[in-house]
Amino acid sequence: MFKAILIEKDDVVGYRARSTTLDEAQLPEGDVTLRVDCSTLNYKDALAITGKGPVVRKFPMVPGIDLAGTVEASASPDFKAGDQVLLNGWGVGEQHWGGLAQKARLDGRWLIPLPRGFTARQAMAVGTAGYTAMLSVLALERHGVTPEQGEILVTGANGGVGSFAVALLARLGYQVVASTGRPEQADYLKKLGAGEIIDRATLSEPGRPLARERWAGVIDSLGSHTLANACAATRYGGTVATCGLAQGMDFPATVAPFILRGVTLAGIDSVMCPRAERIAAWERLARDLDLALLDEITREIGLDEAIPMAGELLAGKVRGRLVVDVNR
């Protein structure tokens, strides 16, 4: 028996998430069975738990798009009992039971070894948020954006992806401008490495097709008008990495930045990203992330706290990352 968050939907109770105890025989199919050490609470997990977004595709579902754990049994040629492993994405917590539980059974092809230099808790402090931020930084680098070219805008800077994007870019020598709706968190963002803080309201309303050129690059986790305005103010030849939709899935923009300034819009998908790219991103995280900042970015909660904290996360009241110790 093991503890888990379970999401159910039926004609009697409607949509609900509850903390419960499950039998290991109920675990879905997979060739690797894990003892989960830590998971996380991400924006997507919060949507799944609250039902405020169409995240869950099958019911019942154990949410949790991240997990770090120890292999208990394996039929995979890549892993054996005792191996420490990590998972981000692959539809886990959406179509296959995820990490907000003390046990998981998964397809071994979705796992990578726990990156050298990380404990399970540290890997979950980074989680999908930090991994997505690193994929975004790699996209800027791949398109030739260098620190010498000018300022980099990070939107949603107080969130998980934004916090890591600020920290990584600053460590790499970029001039970071952090956009946030919580100006009281300016000291936090400056500690991560932001050189300037701007109010998100300057980007979140409808704007012009083209604005004054300012950004050499952008990492955006909001979408909607914020993404459109970021593109409109990106300098000639700059790159905008888009990785989220916290403001909205819409993109109310024109083609002007792309055909008049040669701006590149680079989409970042962390869910189905190929294994080799995942490993490369985690290797860069091990090299470029100041692990001493993790305590600043991260808060730890117990499994039973995940449900009430989901609403807080969607309301924008959570700073940085929430690591879930599934065993307390």
TrEMBL record:
Pfam families named among the record's database cross-references: ADH_N (PF08240), ADH_zinc_N (PF00107)
CDD domains assigned to the protein according to its UniProt record, in alphabetical order: MDR_yhdh
Superkingdom of this protein's organism: Bacteria
SMART domains in UniProt: PKS_ER
GO MF, any single term: acryloyl-CoA reductase (NADPH) activity
The Enoyl reductase (ER) domain, residue ranges: 10-324
This protein's name: Acrylyl-CoA reductase (NADPH)
